[in-house]
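Lecture 7, part B: from sequences to assemblies.

Below are the input chains for today's worked example.
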Amino acid sequence: MKVTLKIKRFNPEVDKKPHWESYTVDVEPTDRVLDALHEVKWSIDGTLALRRSCAHGICGSDAMRINGRNMLACKALVKDVAKDGVITVEPILGLPVVKDLIVDMAPFFAHYRAIMPYLVNNDPPPERERLQSPEDRARYDDTTKCILCACCTTSCPSFWARGEYVGPAAIVQAHRFIFDSRDQAAEERLRILSEPDGVWRCRTVFNCTEACPRGIQVTKAIGEVKEALRTGVIR
Amino acid sequence: MPQYHQFDAIVVGAGGAGLMAALHASRSVKTAVISKLYPTRSHTGTAQGGISAALGNLEEDHWEWHAYDTIKGGDFLCDQDAVEIMCREAIDAVIELEHMGLPFDRTPDGRIAQRRFGGHTNNITKKPVMRACHAADRTGHMILQTLYQQCIKQNVTFFDEFQVVDVLVENGVCNGVVAVELATGEIHVFHSKATLIATGGFGKMWKVTSNAHSLTGDLPAALLRRGLPLEDMEFFQFHPTGIYKLGILLSEAARGEGAVFINGKGERFMARYMPTLKDLAPRDICSRCIYQEIREGRGVDGKDYVYLDFRPEVINRYFEEDGNPKRVDAHYLEQKLPDIIEFARVYLGVDPITQPVPIQPTAHYAMGGIPTTNDAEVLADETGRIVEGLYAAGEVACVSVHGANRLGTNSLVDLVVFGKRGGVRMAEYAKQASFRPINYDTAAKEGAAQLDRIRNNNGTERPSAIRKELQALMDDKVGVYRTGAGLEEALDHIRDLQARFRRIRIDDKGYKWNTDLMEAWELGNLLDLAEVTAYSALWRQESRGGHYREDYPYRDDTNFLKHSMVWKDGKLEIRSKPVRITRYPPEERKY
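Predicted structure of the full complex, as structure tokens:
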């Protein structure tokens, strides 16, 4: 089928501001939007810049705004997103655009680093594995799926309004450790998240949950962190 | 202006092997990691089913059994001392990962859960054994995340989105690397005492592949240009269960949980070929059996695919037939295999819980690569001479622990065990070595010149067209089945493509995030590695593991129980070195 990709372009070496370009390519309906973007890049205009790697929704490189919604280009099929034969593609919002669909991810990863995204357990490790019941393991299963693609954070109006807000992805990562029975730094993470740019900036808009390509219940996870802060109990 | 950096240890690549090496090296020396991707984008993250270690959490197991299975799985081309190290140290490595926080699935009593995987057996009963430690079907994702988390905790220095274009090897010594910063196009020279390469595989020379777009073999190709050899390049694994036409991987864990192959006539054909292990036979064997079925007209609807069937009622029927008391239901499968079930739903519109899934073999894993010692030191030749200060680990390296065919889960075992050994060894070396003088300006100029040649080339050929032709050619002539005539044609064709590559033209002449330029440069690397692959495959006149020659259908231990090593100095040159055998004498491979 023929599909027209309307892409927001910006080349820092040439352009003063972004502009839209349209390209019509021949693709299969079941092709990914990433395949269509590659068709543009490989057959029409090699200057189109985007990040991509695994091409099946695991590495998290190709988050972009497709028809106004955050998705991974490798997980969106042309037949599902084309409207009257047109797909609009632009960079995710709230992070500085570097070139075309590539944004500066440094602020996003700085928020991630701020919440101590690693297991803290100061007891001497046993000779074998630390034990954890299947129930305790299941408690934080959902938030272990996060691939740090930034679909959630850059769909959040609170983040758009204030880039200092740690954002949903960082809270998801904090949740993964706060609710891990092996971890001992929940209090410290909760303290970080109780600061003005922490979890309370969340206005429960649910954009993050809708945007997550891994199906993580992001808003629910944020709610559980809020609840832990409110009650002082982690469960 | 080029920028200069100095670190005791440089790690190139931020997947499992690179991060493991960096964690261990950075405990004692100043270390930096350079990667063309953000670390969490690395391909380790797509590994699904598990990491094997003979923990024996659910049934009797021994690391010696794991070693034997690995060696037999590798069709006796593995260096057995290396395999013994890997399987013994796998146990501590998995425990170390758990201590770092890796969220393994658990047994009812809270220990690490394990499941069956292809080729992993109880050596006495010959039946499948539960050895693969897992976190649902995203074990690689959890390993990558956990190692990156630990690197943050330990404050490891990262240069993210820097592409290494040259390795400074001269007179048998490595003094660092040259990289381009993708965001700016600036050249950076990294001066080091020790450099470890962990850049993964190079499956993008094939069309149907499970490999990421970024897996283009940049560093092995760079070493080839610097006069170093590559080992066993004829051995590339075709995983039996790629999604039809797309090549996206559906983990062997599906078969570990009971899924079966079904042909166009509705038969569970693996029971005919491999009566004991059946669908859990090693990957090279399953891939050949699938093509055998297709060739004999038993593909689905006469086409070039078969089904992977993991509908609960089908799994339970064959469990019953095999005398296995286990039973599964939809909920259980959704818990154990959530990602691959979703892949089938998203990319095929097929729901594996109610429909069988069309699959075909997909180019998956490089058994060959940069030759190393058991401590990840890079070998300069077939005599065991090492390149001082240069190390390699993970898929990019050839220790060789996988021989002619890798067993499922052993890639993750390899990268944690040898990533760690490499990291430890490079730090020991860096502590006692001193920086050797290098000519920064020449290094920077040569790195920049490589890219400028492509940027300014005034030809007519589109790199994308050459890449597409290469991938179709490799699928056709250098795939699961090979012949001497086909390989000669492939070599001629690749050389023609190399000539055309010298006449390319790219659209983007800029510096900032010039992915047009980088893709073209990567294509040059793929072409060089494809040439070496076809050349090695032509040399090996036997069939062993993942390398199957229709004109030489049997294994030939008299003439080919040895590793190939290929150099490229203008033209290709091949030599060989013996396989190291300890306690597992070569035998016929039956399952």
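Note for the exam: Residues 227 and 233 of chain A are 8 Å apart (CA to CA). Keep this in mind when comparing with the next example.
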